[in-house]
Design a protein that fits this description.
242 residues; mainly alpha; Heme Oxygenase, Chain A; globular
Length: 242
């Protein structure tokens, strides 16, 4: 059973690295778990070597991840309906205007889920019907895999995502060199804003979720994310010199 700590425990500061020039670190206690090594592997992928089309493909992969993130957060809130921190986190990730406005994606003050922001930004740079069908098929398989995982593990995954894990991944993604495109410009906005949302030691999304205390029961969620990225963007597994 997933047991929440006392309110006093929830107020402890996190161990995130705030310097924009350095990657965030997940809590030191989590470094003993295998999922932290998967995070490091994702960050070490060839983000800087992607060309324009591959960067858009990476945004497509993240779109499907963003769906499962919202669903896992909803699972966590359902497990702990009285948890004020999770309720606040949900308000800042779902039906929110904290990414608005963005030209072609969200109007001034428009409230929407973050995965809806991703869906809309992808429409600014349409892909071929064949590629879209492939992406949707792969994405649906990924979502089916995540949805088959037990509710407690899905809830715990939120802490690993928000308390340093995704901040590391987002900083790695920002190494992509190609942003001169409406979809990618909006995606960069999404990534940069989420780094800001997550990284405040006392008020950020990491602070709101770390009491869920992730362990290696969440490993399948991170390995599924890694497979998703590579299936959408095979070039991520190559080195710059290849």
């Amino acid at each position: 059973m997933l047991v929440l700590p006392s309110t006093s425990e929830l107020s402890q500061p996190c161990d995130l690295v705030m310097n924009e020039s350095r990657p965030a670190k997940i809590d030191r206690a989590a470094e003993t778990f295998a999922f932290s090594h998967v995070i490091a592997d994702i960050c070490s992928l060839n983000w800087a070597g992607l060309v324009h089309e591959e960067c858009i493909d990476a945004a497509w992969a993240y779109y499907f991840f963003s769906i499962q993130f919202r669903e896992n957060l909803q699972v966590a809130c359902a497990l702990f309906p009285e948890d004020a921190n999770l309720s606040r986190l949900k308000r800042e990730e779902c039906d929110t205007d904290n990414l608005s406005p963005w030209d072609g994606v969200a109007e001034e003050g428009e409230r929407l889920n973050h995965d809806e922001f991703m869906r809309r930004l992808l429409q600014l740079s349409p892909v071929s019907e064949d590629k879209r069908f492939l992406f949707e098929s792969n994405g649906d398989r990924y979502l089916d895999e995540v949805r088959s995982i037990d509710a407690e593990s899905r809830a715990r995954s939120i802490a690993s995502y928000e308390d340093g894990g995704l901040e590391q991944v987002f900083r790695a993604m920002l190494l992509m060199h190609t942003w001169a495109n409406p979809s990618l410009s909006a995606f960069r906005h999404f990534l940069s804003e989420h780094i800001r949302f997550d990284s405040s030691p006392d008020q950020g999304h990491g602070a709101l979720s770390r009491h869920l205390r992730p362990d290696d029961r969440i490993l399948p969620l991170w390995t599924a994310f890694q497979r998703l990225l590579v299936s959408f963007v095979p070039a991520l597994e190559t080195t710059t010199g290849e």
